[in-house]
Amino acid sequence: MSSARNRIAVYPGTFDPITNGHIDLVDRAAPLFERMIIGVAESPGKSPALPLDIRVELARKAVAHHDHVEVRGFNSLLAHFVAQVGGGVLLRGLRAVSDFEYEFQLASMNRHLIPEVETLFLTPAEQYGFISSSLVREIARLGGDVSGFVPPAVAQALQAEWQRKKN
After folding, report:
1. Catalytic residue among 28, 35, 61, 95, which?
2. How far apart are CA 12 and CA 80, in angstroms?
3. Is 46 a known active-site residue?
């Protein structure tokens, strides 16, 4: 693998929504790479609460403080997306031991599909280890305050989405 390719990391996910835990991983991983691409997966099978274009825009706002981090939506196989952007490293977050088995399975599958790409696992800072997008969505859906878990723009977008769905 070329050294230039190693300098481009891809952080894929549904990011429905992007959380402070995701941003923490970006903040800590970004200095390790010349370029980082957050790949926001369309993931229609997961029935995301927020449309892809909104998730991409919210992620862009959340990481705007990094000039070499780019956010792109995609609706293809991750292996194809990584090849398209020239990524050499897949970044994945591990919050707890319970995440490991699934992430290990994904990493093994990706190693078969894109053997030239390495997977790098990072753990979030302790104060973000319990945050998950699904919990944030559920709290927001039930009218709870998610401002401690997501950037302000994300909290506003979730509130607006649930208000829209109620009406």
Report:
1. 95
2. 12
3. yes
Residue at token pair 């995301």: 48
Longest dimension (CA), the chain: 53
The DSSP secondary-structure symbol of 109 reads H
> Dihedral (C-alpha) 161, 134, 55, 14: value to the nearest 10 degrees?
-150
* Per-residue pLDDT reduced to its tens digit, 65-114: 999 999 999 999 999 999 999 999 999 999 877 788 899 999 999 999 99
CA distance 66 to 26: 9
pTM: predicted TM-score of the whole model, two decimal places: 0.92
Is residue 22 among the annotated active site residues? yes
Could you tell me if 93 and 59 are in contact, meaning their C-beta atoms sit under 8 angstroms apart? no
Tell me which DSSP letter residue 58 carries: H
Q: How many CA atoms lie within 13 A of 50 on its CB side?
A: 31
Strands (E), 19-129: 35-41, 69-74, 89-93, 118-122
Q: Is 61 a catalytic residue?
A: no
Distance CA 7, CA 108 (A): 21
DSSP secondary structure code for residue 148 in this structure: T
Closest CA relative to residue 153, chosen from 15, 27, 18: 18
Mark whether 47 is an active-site residue: no
